[in-house]
């Protein structure tokens, strides 16, 4: 029962956030009528969204938090946002990795979660510019007792570069390394995603490194929770139409799912209940 209540709360808060962003603000009494819940429930939802830093509470309602397009939170700050959604996304995205293939993972907290699920996929060659992602595979290759790497462990290539607040390595060194490689699949984390701006980041150097990743991959899989939709960073590095599959979570509102499906061929919503036969 508690799991169902949590799921409903997450979906309700996603709808509230979408309403706030689309209209530029909402009132509590409007939300109680629209969602058919109590005034106290809406206020708790607004408190939760305010703690996540995505809305600002005002008298009688809420307005969106408008961050500077150059603002880039650190890895630890981003890790605290939507952890259950990121786990759902990571689990679903890992099923898209084929044993023995060459894959790339960009930086980010969702790709970090994905890396842990990829440990069970044998014989991968993994290229990443994320120090955190590389550490996941590196630690897994050092089993207790000091013996050699386990059979089928991933081969990991970490690019060089300048370290960003989210522990990614970007810049000319990373760009040159990626230019010489070819990937079966790129798993790409993003700061923001929208129909107009496509995929974006607040970091200019990271945008260029991500462009190189996109060009080097046969298939592009974006892993992004529902709060990333509608966020726009300083620099766009790919159009939505360049993405093959977007893996997101069940907090994404149905109307947004329909809009996304107009722009890309694959939308995988992790955590959705299976449809009845």
From TrEMBL:
Coiled coil: none annotated. Keywords: DNA-binding, Transcription, Transcription regulation. It holds the Pfam family HTH_DeoR. PANTHER family: AGA OPERON TRANSCRIPTIONAL REPRESSOR-RELATED, HTH-TYPE TRANSCRIPTIONAL REGULATOR SRLR-RELATED. InterPro entries: Carb_Metab_HTH_regulators (IPR050313), DeoR-like_C (IPR014036), DeoR_HTH (IPR001034), NagB/RpiA_transferase-like (IPR037171), Tscrpt_reg_HTH_DeoR_CS (IPR018356), WH-like_DNA-bd_sf (IPR036388), WH_DNA-bd_sf (IPR036390). This is DeoR/GlpR transcriptional regulator. GO terms for molecular function: DNA binding; DNA-binding transcription factor activity. SMART domains: DeoRC (SM01134), HTH_DEOR (SM00420). The lineage of its organism: Bacteria, Bacillati, Actinomycetota, Actinomycetes, Kitasatosporales. Residues 9-64 form the HTH deoR-type domain.
